[in-house]
Amino acid sequence: MNKNPQTPLVFCTILLLLKSLHANSHSHSHTVCIIGSGIGGASVAHFLRRYSDPQTIGQITIFERHGVVGGRMATVTIAGETFESGASILHPKNYHALNYTKYLNLRVKQPKHADDSLSLGIWDGHKFVYKTLNSSSKLPIVQRFVAIANSIVMLLRYGVFSLLRMSSFVEATVNKFLRYYEGFESRPVFESVEGMLKWAGLYNLTTRTLGEELVNVGLSPILIQELVTVITRINYGQSVNISGLAGAVSLAGSGGGLWSVEGGNWQMAAGLINRSEVVLHLHEEIESISYLGDVYELNSTKGKSYNCQVAVVATPLDELNILFNPAISLPPRKLQHTHATFVRGLLNPAYFGLGSLSDIPELVGTTETADVPFSSISILKEHEKDMTYKIFSREPLADALLDVIFSVRVETIKINWAAYPHYQAPETYAPFILDGNHLYYVNAFENAASTMETSAVAAENIARLILSRLSQQVYYSSTNLKSFSSDSSRLHVEL
């Protein structure tokens, strides 16, 4: 049989043509630069990969000015033990965080206390205005009796109906927030924070203070002044003058079933980045972002320049000096700094007017008064001869003051977090799209509420927004989107 001598040539030509088409398809993929490697930036990368293909999203580059990923999720080691130093607790209905944990094969860590076994004291700078009963007995029946007695004391002080109304207020808010997990067939892509909040029925909560909202639903003044204030001071370092939505989120973060990731919550960000085929630049701070007509030029403090077709800011801009060209406009916003002080030692009972160390509650919360220099003190770990404590305060605690609060101080670590916005009602919001093109801002949503999960929810919307605007069509026709939508809908139904 005679072979056609042109067959190999034709075959090679077809291969070259296919290779050229493949290369061209990748040349049309969009490059993305993300500033910030916290849960927001990591989530944007994750959802971009999950909801698209290489023909749509090409290289993703993340810039982190510090030497580790995780942003405000971080750990500290004291007395040979590792503890959360930043964002520490997750709610049982934080479905993105739960999905991340399963996806990354991370272990869930439950709180060391049962919901009713933590001893609490509310300190006004002079005395404990409320203090739970405590017992040195470890017998389960004794502990159960003490828990029942404490429940009765709390009901008598704050009122059954007031406590029920507070619980209903939080539950109603959480149920509205759960709409953000609905399938794409019913959940649109949001171009503004206001639109996102209004769609879920949460916007009005940001127009009034938490105090006003709670008075409106019938809570007693003493419950607001004491228990609610303790919770907002611990979770947001602020009073009940924060907005109603941030306050509701804060109250939700004091309920039962709270959890964290064994070994540190930062592993969620690290794992998502590792799985998202990201080019990661640590120790590289971006100092300017310029729009050149078809790409963004990012210049770093290392003197390097990078070009991307999409730029995402996933870190608060409030205390950064990034130069934008053209200039962008943001509403003024102050960040609330929380000082986390870790001490291995022993508290001084005399500071609290008590006779013995065992009389000091495991969690000391404080009322809104100038007479107390800290927001809370809690026991993290009991050692053989001393303990590890975590203290939250609005201002740094001087060593001289710590020597008054503590009778023994073996080791001390101080961390200053630019933790969350300083909330005020009515809230105003930065845009998700900073320039009308492809410069996006995840942290615009933080003025509604600032948690690990709200950052993930905002990041998921940003990823969908990017893909929707790049394609100029509704992007949830993708198989990946439908698959994820199905999972989300199932979670919502199970509630």
TrEMBL record:
GO terms for molecular function: lyase activity; prenylcysteine oxidase activity. Belongs to the prenylcysteine oxidase family. It comes from the Eukaryota. Keywords: FAD, Flavoprotein, Glycoprotein, Lyase, Oxidoreductase, Signal. Residues 1-23 form the signal peptide. The keyword Glycoprotein applies. The gene is LOC105178024. Residues 146-474 form the Prenylcysteine lyase domain. GO terms for biological process: prenylated protein catabolic process; prenylcysteine catabolic process. This is Farnesylcysteine lyase. Gene3D superfamilies: FAD/NAD(P)-binding domain (3.50.50.60). The keyword Cell membrane does not apply. InterPro entries: FAD/NAD-bd_sf (IPR036188), Prenylcys_lyase (IPR010795), Prenylcysteine_Oxase1 (IPR017046). Its cofactor is FAD. It comes from Sesamum indicum.
